[in-house]
Amino acid sequence: MRLESVEINNYRQYQRATFTFPKLNGKSDLHIIYGSNTVGKSNMLNAITWCLYERELHLGDKNTAQPMINNSYVSHLRSINQNNGEVSVILTISSDDGKRKMKVERVASFNVTADTVKEIDDKVTVSNYDNNQWSIIENQEEALINIHRYLPEEINEYIFFDGEQLEKYFQEVQTNKNIKAIKGFTQSDIIEKAIRGFNKAKSEISLKLTNMGDNELKDKEADLKAKEDACKQLEDIIKELKTQIGQAKDKIAELDEIIRDKETIRDKTQRYQELQDEAEQLEEEKKSLFSDMMKFARKYYTLLALYPALKAYKEYIDKQDVDGKLPPIIDKDILDRIVKDGKCLICGNELDEKHIAFVRELQRKINMSSKTSNEMKAALGALRGYFQEIDGYKEEKAKKVQSYESLQKRIKDNENEYSKLDEYLKSIPNNSEIAEAISNREKYQELLNALYERKGKEEYSFQIAEEKREEADKEYRKAVAKHEELRGISAQMEYCTKASTVLEKTEENILAGFRNDMEKQTYDLFNSLTWAKGKYIAINLGKDYSVKLLNKFGDQALGSCSAAERTLLALSFTLALQKSSHHDSLLFIDTPVGRIDEENRKNFSKVLLDLAKSKQVILTFTPTEYDADVRGVLEGNYSSFQELIQNDFITEVKTK
User: Model-level pTM?
Assistant: First the structure.
């Protein structure tokens, strides 16, 4: 199936624009749409999906998006007081051999007032090309069937998609979409509806049996219902846990991309902060030590200034003492008692007048010299304390100097380490984001471990609950079988159960066969397209269509392969899906190399060019993406090159 042309009228950036995609002889069926960001490449894709399915599938936030009708067109309608306007998109589609053609036209009518723009109608018209003329399919249901035959809506994401979508193809949300689409391809969703119908019939039969008034059946049925509810509840819990596990894995993979090869950033950032705090603490210690040293200096400045004079004074006192020029210190009270008692208090002898006169003369001399003697003796004691402090000066000074030098070394070491870390962290962009990503990854890893642990417990609980349910089901069947009048109803129940079991097995076999075919097709395509031959040996698809890409050592390598290889694998998966579902359609990729590094853009462009030999491939590029490597591969090999140019916010198509 090919897209021959797209005509767009009054849709978003476009007023009148036509894209044509001819297949030229000697050229690949490759078509390039070239334009800057915001010029309308993605909206060209939205115009196609809106025309086919009445949905702008690649629009951002649909709730905040402005109406699709072109703004300049709305201004023109208001200027001429015209209230009615139309938006239309026309697609011309053909089979690969060109023998069959279909035209799809969708027209939306709008009411335009001075204040509002409101869509009032939407209509799609489908025409087939027969006998050299176009004939409209009048029946609306038949028209939609024709669209579905060429471009089924359930596979639109495997025909029209953007490059970033390819790179994120194997995340949890996309995997769920894959499963839904595959069930549509294989029509196993129809089998699921039949299974639900039989289960509903079983519930109705159970209700009928209950209403017949058999107490035993009521008890058995209630017990079975309770155990079925318990199993269903556990199934829902396990399903939710699987979803949360997938989301946690996706988040960890996203954080891994941020922190790859930068795992030490958080520790270095933490050390950087510690050094800042340590620097402030050292500054406070420096202030305190400086204050202490100033006190020390003031104290010893006075002591050292007085030292020469005080030393001379002490030497004078010592000399006077040695020369005996200092009177002895005599207790005056003892002399007073000797005179009073007339008796020597030392030897006990009586004293005559001559001796008493001697004592009285001694009392007189003491009164004259004791003041000087006492002052000099007291000064000597004070001087000894002074010189003891002077003796401790050198030791105390040495301690102060050592403390100061030690502190200076710590400050210098801090500054050196801080400077090196500062230079390192400045060389890494977004280091705070990386540190946060590392912390968040640990949290998500803890969450993932907890989810796995809980999932294991719930699965074990489900296993036990399922065994109890099966036992309750046996007991219930026995109760039904006991009653002759209920045999007919029991047979109906048995039939519904068997039919449900057969359908479940059939669905399982269909999906398994499709999955096996998909697995082989995906690997064959990937192996034929990849430029790293022999690097990967197999692709395994799980029951939930989770992908395992095995390297030559047999290890899972999906998480560690490059963005280009993941994109290539997603492209192979898409092509395999088209082949296995027998809807081998075109590929429309918006910004195919947007997530591909420059090293692999050339290889990936070669893959896309090779694909265009067997199917129509439409690619959109920005000037940045259509670089020398991409241009070197594609230039001269495409069938059409159409450039989008914007004038006064209106996008026009220029064919090269």
Answer: 0.61
